[in-house]
Amino acid sequence: MTANGLLQIGLFLAALFLLAKPLGGYMARVYEGNPPAFARWLSPMENLFYRLCGVNPEEEMRWTRYAMATLWFSLLGMVAVYAMQRLQGMLPLNPQGFGAVTPDSAFNTAISFVTNTNWQGYAGESTLSYLTQMAALAVQNFFSAATGMAVLIALIRGFARHTVDTIGNFWVDMTRSTVYILLPLSFLLALVLVSQGVVQNFASYKTVETVETIRYDNPKLDAAGQPIKDAAGNPVTEKAATKEQTLPMGPVASQEAIKELGTNGGGFFNANSSHPFENPTPLTNFLEILAIFLIPGALCHTFGRMVGDTRQGWAILAAMTLVFLGLLAVAEVSETAGNPALAALGVDQAVSATQSGGNMEGKETRFGVVNSALFATVTTSTSCGAVNSMHDSFTPLGGLVPLVNIQLGEVIYGGVGSGLYAMLIYAVIAVFIAGLMIGRTPEYLGKKIEAFDIKMASLTILIPPLLILCGTAAAVMVDAGRAGVANPGAHGFSEILYAFSSAAGNNGSAFAGLSANTPFYNTALGIAMWIGRFWLIVPVLALAGSLAAKKRIPAGAGTMPTHTPLFVMLLIGTVILVGALTFVPALGLGPIVEHLAMVGAH
Amino acid sequence: MLKEIRPAVVSFLVLSLVTGVAYPLAVTGIAQAVFPEQANGSVIMQNGKAVGSALIGQSFSDPRYFWGRPSATGPMPYNAAASGGSNLGPANPALLEAVKGRVQALREADPGNTAPVPVDLVTASASGLDPHISPAAAEYQAPRVARLRHLPAETVRALVARHTEDRQFGLLGEPRVNVLELNLALDALP
């Protein structure tokens, strides 16, 4: 790592921590229905929504009704996104005249965006109309983020309240997340992105005349538009030449902003945030990374404020940051070290004043290795899944980091809302383990943790690994699963493992060599995404309801404080232990054996 | 459970209008008024003709031009309508073959240059549209371009230096050279 690399990372973390407190405090006031004066001009809009929807904002819900509202809202979103993709050929704002998306791809994408996963089986610039992008996908970028935040706030209320049977009103929490938090921040970010060169228009794609004539081999297509193959199965090509380049256009900046702020991650273009029209400069890259961590980081302070002890929030943030730094270091060091196989070919991978050096396959020059490894670690610590480099081409250990991040449950900052609620579940497990060790009933934030609570917590921790490991095992056993693999050997296994980790963890990034836009993967990953999201949200809300109903017990001499360095370490230990025990064998078959083979060969 | 259906439907519709229609329209309106060039693709115009975008790279294979990053887009390189990387793993023989071929092509275009090849010049970018190369990659090619264009080496070096962007604010990202702009400037030399 160069001094400049450390400085860039330090600056990013400094900006994050400086913003966490004011934004976290602001969000706490918003959810308590008491927004600060500068945001009150939005209140009439909020109240208008309630009147139109027939919602009484004072009326609170029990956890079952809260869960029902969440599910209805998501189901409706899924149907709408599916329908818009299938009907886009007949709808306006489709200057490229794209036809209907295939049923399995539309099914996968609908679940993907409703669950905040934003896995991209499709290539945006050659598949989706502007209307589908902005009114179906970007809308879900807002809604899925707002839903995650609402569920988190309900869980926080479970801790903050006592002896009541309600945990808030979903419509109110969801509306406030959208109106006061996501919309204003997105608006500001979108304008800064445009100023740097992110496109924002409704024009059709632009054709420019290139400097050189480009000669290439064009695959021949049959009457049905399928590539013709010769006897050996290789595509038949013909020589072609062009002096034109087609520049894609569209309302990109508005979608880019919420894509990062809502930890969604579904790119307007296939290449996601590595595409120069999504992420043109180092400044946009800095802001996009910051935007991914911004709300999840600040929500830790919101949590501290709402439970009446800000130290509790800072302790969680400290635990997240320590794990993040450890994993980031591994990614940075492995990517900077480069690919030993290339060194033998006379390639210069050394870091110098005039080049970033390192493993540059699948990375952009303007970001270099430092910002690519940073982006990869950030996007997988959260449930974002946007990428500014191709994870599939990372070194084995560099690629291990995003994979492990996802498998730890994306609790290192995590998705907006979903990260912190999963981390609070780990906190519950941590106090439970500590309680077992000393033989006392565990408590967290004055709430006794009992059998029902541990059952719900265990469900949320066990379901994702079950999906990931069983899904991977099934896919490597069937032809349809193996057919998608792009890279030979252990790396091919990693591609499948990554796909199911990403889907079940609602991340959305990929080892993108895997050809996943097939009926098998669209269906299997779609199911994994749905279960990975809603089978977690329901137990979390059940836990919230159970906690809210409990009495608050005053801290005694035997109560373990949960804001101390000791607890921070205990929490980190729990997260890593659960993750490691579950996934080390699978990781051994993928990136670890690949790393050993690479080191052994050179 | 059915009484949540009305708020679900109505809030879905109303908030969709706000976040999916009003918001992108408002951003577009302001963007087109304040940053029209950036919002429309940072297109480079020459003699009234669009010759490319300052943000999107183009394919160069003539040794008289600076070459950019290899591009993995199909069917032709730098296909801006189908962005993407190679997704080749680090140990994939196909990656090593590709790199070997690129090193060879560079050496054939510039016999006698035995310096190690800067890595970004032989590895495919993530987007397939990377408009930049590292200053090291430009330095590596400068003598070749100068020789084939019968230009003094200093002239080409000076041109490269003029088109080298430092880290943003001297701090963020990596130093880089915009290949299309540099090549357009080369062609514009008297």
- Strand numbers in spatial order across the main sheet of chain A: 1-2
Bulk shape of chain A: globular
Q: What's the alpha carbon Rg of chain A, rounded to whole Å?
A: 24 Å
Low-confidence stretches of chain B: none
User: Would you count the extended β strands of chain B for me?
Assistant: 6
Class per helix and strand makeup of chain B? mainly alpha
Cα distance, first to last residue of chain A? 23 Å
- Beta-strand percent range of chain A: 5-15%
Mean pLDDT of chain A equals 94
Helix content of chain A: 55-70%
Overall structural domain count of chain B: 2
The chain-level structural class of chain A is: mainly alpha
Taking the sheet with the most strands of chain A, its summary is: 2 strands, antiparallel
| Order of helix and strand elements from N to C terminus of chain A | HHHHHHEEHHHHEHHHEEHHHHH
Number of helices of chain A: 18
> How are helices and strands ordered from N to C of chain B?
HHEEHEEHHEEH
- Fraction in helix of chain B: 40-55%
**Over the alpha carbons, how many angstroms does the gyration radius of chain B reach?**
22 Å
Give an account of the 3D structure.
- The complex is a heterodimer of chains A (602) and B (190).
- Among the domains of chain A are: 24-200 and 253-296, no CATH class; 206-247, no CATH class.
- Chain A has 18 helices and five strands.
- Chain A has helices spanning 3-31, 43-53, 63-87, 103-114, 130-160, 170-196, 252-261, 282-306, 310-337, 340-343, 368-381, 396-407, 418-438, 451-477, 479-482, 490-504, 519-549, 565-601; strands at residues 206-219, 237-247, 347-348, 443-444, 447-448.
- Chain A has a two-stranded antiparallel sheet with strand order 1-2. In chain A, strands 4-5 form a two-stranded antiparallel ribbon.
- The longest helix of chain A is centred in the C-terminal third of the chain and has 37 residues, at 565-601.
- Chain A is globular.
- Chain B has 190 residues and is mostly helical.
- Chain B folds into two domains: 1-40; 43-188, no CATH class.
- Chain B is 45% helix and 9% strand.
- In chain B, the strands form two sheets. A three-stranded antiparallel sheet of chain B has the order 4-6-5.
- The longest helix of chain B has 30 residues, at 5-34.
- In chain B, 50% of the residues are buried.
